Amino acid sequence: MYLDINFFCLFSEQSVDDFSCPSGDLISNKPNWLKPTNSYKERHYRRYCLNIISIPTDIPKCAVEVKVYGNPITTLKENSYGELPECTIIGLGWNQINQIEAKTFTGLKSVTHVFLHDNKLRKLTQDAFLGLLNCLELMLQFNLIDSIESGTFNGLDSLQKIFLHDNMLTRLSYEMFIGLRSLAELNIDKNSIHVVESGALSGLPRLTSLALLGNALTHLNWTAFVPDDNAGNVNHPQKLELKLIGNPFFCNVSSCWIRKAEEEGWLKWVEGWYDNAQRDLSPQCSNFPGRKWYSINLDCRSQGKYMYKKTPKSCGREGNLPNCAP
Predict the structure, then answer these.
(1) What is the pTM of this model?
(2) pLDDT tens across 204-218, in order?
(3) What is the mean pLDDT of the chain?
(4) Strand ranges (DSSP E) for the chain?
(5) What domains can you pick out in the chain, each with its CATH number?
């Protein structure tokens, strides 16, 4: 859970002084233990709530983290950071960023975490994150993202986690996540996704957690996990934890594969309750009638639970479903 930016600015230490990295021995006749070293502020470069409109140019080369939070930055331009060989953390939360130019992050080969949450991003374009060769986690939650171009994640060969929850995506498209061979966790909770195209989640061989809570999905076809040229053959090498609570799901032929996948051992269906009104998980939701509570039961041999405006449909009433277990 993130702090409100006003609270953050009020209590954060504002770094207003300029720092540079010492070069060489300033006092050559002193022993090594008395020679100057890089200070904490030089290596932890922070500019909080200072009305900065672009990435500063005075960042020391020795910086291991660069955090520019709570400023009116709107655009990240190509090669914004120059060469920062030791930097591992880039923090850009609570700005007004609405555009990331291609190759913004070149020169940041050691960065492992990028924080871009709580901005104004709407569209992610090709090569937006090129240069982040060793990035492990990418935080893009609480933006306005409704479009992700193919090739957006080019160069993120080491990326393990993407957080895209609380955005405005309506569909997951084929090749949207192309190239993310190391991705293990994908969180797309609380968007408005109603379509997942065939092959949209293929090419993610290490994916172990997929969170789609609180979207607008009525079904999820198994073809989302396979490329178009491999239709009819689901082959997921990792056990996938699937979270779909909070969607207006129907138990029909398009969703009954989930139970079969559980039996085959490559998918774990995560059940529970979801409070769409308060954006919270709660086991007590049945005690609060009148809200939009959801629950899903994909056991096709029984009546599914479905508390969302209309009476649930059972698999038995939708005809002969050979993919449902006997």
Answers:
(1) 0.76
(2) 989 999 999 999 998
(3) 75
(4) 44-46, 65-67, 75-76, 89-91, 99-100, 113-115, 123-124, 137-139, 147-148, 161-163, 171-172, 185-187, 195-196, 209-211, 240-243, 267-270, 274-275, 293-294
(5) 1-165 (3.80.10.10), 169-326 (3.80.10)
